[in-house]
Amino acid sequence: MEEPELNYIKMFNAGERITINNCSFGYLSHRIVFYLLNLDIKSKHTYFARAGTTTEEDSYKTDAGLSDQGRLYAEKMGQALLKHRDGERKALADRGGPEVPLKPLKVWTSTRRRTVETADWLYDQGYSVRQRTQLSALNPGVCERMSEKRIRAELPEEVAKHEADPYHHRYPRAESYHDLAVRLEPIILELERQQDDLLIIAHESVLRVLYGYLMACNATDIPSLSFPRNEVVEIIPASYNNEASSIRIPDLPPEIIPPSPEDLKIPVPPSEAPSGTATPVNLGSPRVGPGTPKLGDPHITTTSPPSEHSIPPEPGEGSLLLVERALRD
Q: Where does the chain show beta strands of DSSP type E?
């Protein structure tokens, strides 16, 4: 493409050089340029983990610290993640991959006490922890501390709007998931620039939006994604799309596992999602009734939905993912 009268962007060798012809295009095109300038194609793992439970679970405004169960969760989550990473390194060696050390692991949290304290165990092990204000939970507005029954009774018109469009609707003085996605744009751009492995500890609403971006989910599915607290979600770049899997956190009290009670429960599903509910693992799979896999089922992985221009991966490519990642690095 060499036509001087056209507006176009050309990228060479995945960011080695970018050519922009005629800079007269609008806001969206300039944002695309900015995004392309921040891309990094090096393979890295991204992990998502919930914050631990607090002494005041039903309050958004109260910046409560972790409860005893929350501190137990923080330790077990960190131990499970480090054990999994060490297992990945051994699996790579067993499959004939090169002997390479694990990439450094960085940790991002919001500025709220519950997420900061959830990362304390990893900080004590020597890992870098960074606090980001953009990672704060979705603001529930007037619905804070209100039960679903009370919300339906007092705000029936808002409930109807929310059920019609849960991604864009916002309750009075609250945020919508679209608002949250706009707030997270700097995080997404910096996430793309990361060259090291990254663990993000945040509220479930934040994890939904970030997961939706990385796995190319439909906006309508994002509000109903469920992240039980007994799992860490791992996202790995593959040849043509991203792959997601879950890391089980063992021996947690069952009462702290379900999704956060801070979430508006319209129409957020419970942790043990019923058949047909969108979860991070079954979102990209056909919904086939009671046998539909859920996040937490062993040996379940998924990929982001391919575009119409995607080239399907070769058979067996998933099993060689770790080797492929090491060779690319």
A: 8-12, 17-21, 46-50, 105-109, 128-131, 197-202, 231-237, 242-248, 301-303
Half-sphere exposure of 121 (CA within 13 A, CB side): 19
Q: What are the contacts of 94-99 at 24+ separation with CB within 8 A?
A: 95/320, 95/322, 95/323, 96/323, 97/322, 97/323, 97/326, 97/327, 98/326, 98/327
Mean pLDDT, the chain, rounded, equals 78
Give the closest residue to 321 by CA, choosing from 256, 243, 254. Answer: 243
Query: Which region, left, alpha or beta, applies to residue 84 given φ > 0 means left and ψ of -120 to 50 means alpha?
Result: alpha
58-66: Cβ within 8 A, 24+ apart? 58/145, 58/261, 58/262, 59/144, 59/145, 59/262, 60/137, 60/139, 60/140, 60/144, 60/262, 61/144, 63/112, 63/113, 63/114, 64/113, 64/114, 65/113, 65/114, 65/117, 66/113, 66/114, 66/117, 66/118
Per-residue pLDDT tens digits for 134-150: 999 999 999 988 888 89
Residue 125 burial class via C-beta count within 10 angstroms: exposed 0-12, middle 13-18, buried 19 and up: exposed
What's the token pair of residue 307? 């575009």
In the chain, the largest separation of any two C-alpha atoms, in whole Å, equals 65
User: If we measure between CA atoms, which residue out of 111, 118, 114, 110 comes closest to residue 59?
Assistant: 114
Question: Alpha-carbon distance 51 to 116, whole Å?
Answer: 8
pTM of the shown model: 0.74
What CA–CA distances, in Å, run from 10 to 84, 189, 229? 40, 20, 43
